[in-house]
Amino acid sequence: LTQNLRGLDIVFGPASPTQIPVVADYCREAGIRLVLPFHDGLNYQEHPLVYHATAPAPVVYEAAAKGLLDYYDNKNFVIVRSGNPDAVGRMLSTSLTQQLSQLGIIPRSLELGGDDFAYESAFNQFRSNVIVLDDSSVRSLNMLVARLNDFRQKHSGYHLSLVGYPAWRDE
Prior knowledge:
Helix content is 43%, strand content 16%. The protein is built from 7 helices and 7 strands; from the N terminus they run H-E-H-E-E-H-E-H-E-H-E-H-E-H. The protein has a 4-stranded parallel beta sheet with strand order 5-4-6-7. A 3-stranded parallel beta sheet has the order 1-2-3, with helices on one face. The two termini are 32 Å apart.
């Protein structure tokens, strides 16, 4: 590692979180600047030459909401309320709701634990339904998927799309 980095002014990466502490410690000792474009979990007080290049979460989720609106133009958006939203889910659902309201569209709201009638009332049989859960936990995802599977067995004519979170990819 030290031979490969010797003489550098700046290092971009590494991408793997397991490599960051080793590279950051070496860069600090060698006086090399380190830019982390993909990770935010390092104690920056101990690493004054580390630069975090990832956008703040509110900016990321505002852009994600805009991307959803662009991709799912003219769809029925349904925000599923888990009863225990986390910061990630709250940022995305709030940003999406705000952007929809600027377009004069009010998304449908649905309680995760709602009955079949509540799900049928929130979804539109004649338009595609885009579902956004206000909680990025796998526990809430599993509960929602079970509810959606039950709903699809009774109501096969509905087109449902579920927006996912990065945390779900790892499970």
